[in-house]
Structure formats: structure tokens, C-alpha cells
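Re: duplicated header lines in exported C-alpha cells

Our pipeline writes sequence and C-alpha cells for each protein into one text file. With two proteins the header for the second block appears twice in some exports. Here is an export where it did not happen, for reference. First protein block:
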Amino acid sequence: MAAEFEVIRLVGEERRVGNLLSQVSKHWQGEKESFCFVSPHDDDVVLGAGLAIQLAIAEGVPVHVLVVTDGAMGYCSEAEKETIIEIREQETYDSIIALGVPKENIHFLCFPDCQLGLYTGRRVGNGEPSAIAGYTGLQNAFTYHLRKIKPTQVFVPTMNDLHPDHKVTNEQLQISLFHASGDIWPELGAPIDAVPAIHELAIYCDFPEPPTLKISCDAETFEKKLTAIAEFKSQKQISKLIENVRNAGPQEYIRTINFRFYQPETYHHLFQGTSTNPTIGR
């Protein structure tokens, strides 16, 4: 049985309703579509976008997942303290592949869990697991993967989330959109042709502003998301999160960010007619 979805996108006071993202999205590029879900921790993207991933795959859109941290701080017993990275890596594969994402499209960036504040920007890598082309840092990794994957749409936890790793991931991803579209750091690949649309997911906290997209699904598709979350067996508190998601019902909410580079002309109208010198500002 094919999965069934309903998608509602808010455009001002207007509601656009369809069964597919392609029917309501203002960013849709047809066969060029490629989605990238950026997950600070391995389970974040399944919690916040397990339905969105399934919908994208149902529409034939290639889906990539970037897992930013290594999960080292997620141990719940002394016995797993030294092996939790390997355990969570396997759980990640089991979970995200169950949603339909190919194994080769799951990318581990290997930054230390709960330490992303130390990895803003870019610096020489010194053999660290997170190093790419001899450099480490979130901007280095994001720029590389954006250029390699060339996504048309990117999804990341909201800056409003309390977890510092989520805030840093969001911030560093957005500046990396600027880098990826320019000529800087050529060893990381050719610049992307266009900046992708960027969307926020809510994991722990509410959005800073109301979401703009709602995805609903049938019971079987929803159960598939819950099962995928449950693959993170090493995370003993995961049962509480599953119950929270189950109680919320078969829907997800996403907020599109109005991302664009600075354009001074945006503010011209605010100051029209205020100059006393007619030669100034020409």
C-alpha cells in the first residue's frame, strides 16, 4: 500500500493544500530536486522529519542526511561509555535506512558530541576525524557537503532549540551557504549554482515564529517513523520521546526561513524624503 500524505503550506493568509510537496512548494525544481537533512545528533532528524523524509522519497527526491556529531556523550551506562560511538552509528543506519534513505546517502561528520562550539569556522585539521581536505570546522564540512550534494532544499533544527549543538549547527550551516556559493576554498569542490531553500525543524522547543508547512500521513507511515526512532535503543530516554511523538499524532511541522544575502535596497524606502542635501545619496 502506497503511503498517503496531506501537505498544507501557509502563504500569508492563503492555505495551499495537496498530497505532495511538489503541489504546494514555491521552491520546487522538478527533476533537479535534492534534499539534505542536517542532524546535529543522530536521532534529531528522525524525530523532527521522519515523515518529511518519507514524503520526499515517495516523490522520488534524493535524500541525504548529515549527522554532525559522533554521539560520544549519549552513553547511558558505564559499560557503553567506550563503545557508544560505534553503537550509535549502527543505530543510525538501522533507523534512517528504515525510512528509505540509502546507506551511501548517510554522512557522518564526526565532530565531538556536545562540543560544537569549539568547531565554529575553519582551521587546519591535524588528523582529526572531522577533517576534510586537511581542514576541520563546521564551515569546512558544511561547505564541502553542500558542494558535493548540491541540494535544492536543506532542513536543520531551529535556532530556537535549547541544545547548544542545535544552535551552532543552524548558525554555521547558514554562513556555509554563503561559502558554498562562492569561490573560496576551491579544494572543497566547485561552487553550487544556487543557494538552496532552508527550512527549520523543531526538536526540543517551539519555533521562534509559527511554522509554514504541515505534513500529515496515514497510520502505517506514522508507525514507520516511530519504529525508526525506536532503533536508537542505546538512548534509554528514547521511549519518552516516542510517546511524545505518538501522542502528537501523525503530523510534522516545518518552518521555512526567509534566507537571503544582505540587500541594502531593502531599507531605502524607510528613509525616502528625509535628506536635506539633494546631492547626498546619489
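Second protein block, exported in the same file:
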Amino acid sequence: MKIHPLRTGTVRVKHSFLFAGTGVRRQLDLFLPSEWSDALPIHAWAVEHGGELILVDTGETTNVKNVPFARFDVRPDQELPQALAAAGLDIGNVSRTVITHLHGDHVDGAVHVRAAVLVHDKEIAFVHSVSSRFFQKVLRQPLPAGVEFEPLRLDDGPFGAFDRSKALSDDGRVMVVPTPGHTPGHISVVCVDEGGNHVFLAGDATDTLEQLHARRHDAIGPKPDVNVATIDRILAHAREHPMVYLPSHDQDSAARLAEATPVAA
């Protein structure tokens, strides 16, 4: 198994995005003046295993529009095909793509993909809800045109600390698990490497490893208590298995992957 970090540009977010308040201020603060973070990576991941090339998320494109709480910087040479080429991979060899959730910086690059694009069935239902469609329009963040999503059902039973899962490989070393909170249908992908490490491709389950340890909910998800419950489940999984935790926007994720640095559970 080989896992490649694919950096598809960067994003700067408000301090209130990374360190969410509570109550009504949690989401309101996203639209009020705030300090901005340094540039954070927009990662997708390529997993080579069992003769397959599986993508986890597809990153952002140059067509992205800024929103009140996020400013993007994506060059043409950073879009998915070029990011794969920089890793010595060909987008034409991608066999399957799994999307952690349907926010633009994780799914917009799917316009480049011709293989199946798998999305949790609960995420598909959520993104077509009235509230989601409203914010897609107001924030100018539509789903990428021409991409057909295939529903992914987590019907393979428990995996580690998770009560449901879906195997993406016949040997059970590439698994999808539910990590709701940031969105109701958010999923993560767990890859079991040759050393027995559970490499946790976390999407936006948290923004950083620090947030995971702090057990801090985010500013986006509709139900903060669901977010924290997921964090606790991830930490429980880390107590059961050596786990390398890789959120998509953590500046240190690529280094932790290279060094196979486990979470201190």
C-alpha cells in the first residue's frame, strides 16, 4: 500500500472557523470580522493498493469563489490531474473516487474524474435538503457540473470503534467509516498499512490534530454534539489501534504520513 498526499492549492480561514464559539455566536462569527489563518493545504489523497488507484477527495479548482470565512488560492498546475502527475500517477488510472463530504474544496476536482465517484447516501440526501441548497446559492458554491455521484451505503458492520463501515478493498485494508458532524453524512477512509497503522484520512472530521485532542466542535456542522461524539469515537479507535491522523487542512498531515507518526491516544 502507498498513500500519496495531493496538495490542490491552499485556503485561509477565519480564526472563528478554526476556534469556534458556542451558542448563536458559533456560526454568526464566521460572517463577522476576524483574524485570518496562514495558508492551509487543500489535500486530497491517492491510495495505491491491490492493483487499484483510489482517490479520497478531489481537491479544489481555479474556478473556486471565496466565501466570507474562506479565501482560496488554487493555480492551474495544482488541480487534480497535475497534482497526481507530480506524484508520478495518471488520472486515467483512477479506479474509484470516494468523497468525504460535498463541500467544494473536497469535491470540485471531481470534474476531472471519469471513474465512479462514491458519496455516502446520507450526504447526498443532506446536500439536496432545502437548507443546503440555500447556502450553495448564497455562497456561490454549487456542486460541480456534470459529475454523477454513486450512493455509498455503509452496510458492512462494525470496524474498530465504528458501528458501521464499508470495505473498499477485498482484504479489508481500505475501509470507509461514518464521521458525522462537519456535515451529517461526512465519512472518513481508514487504510491499514503494512506496519499495522490505521492511516485515518479524516476529511474535515476536524480541521487539525490539535482540534481532535481538544475535543472541540467546529463552526460549520449543524449539531456540535454530533461533532464531539465523532471526535470521541475517533479517539477511541486510536486507543484500539496505532493511528496516523490526517485531516485535509492540517499543515502537518503530509509530514505525519511520511513519518507514520501515530496519534498519542
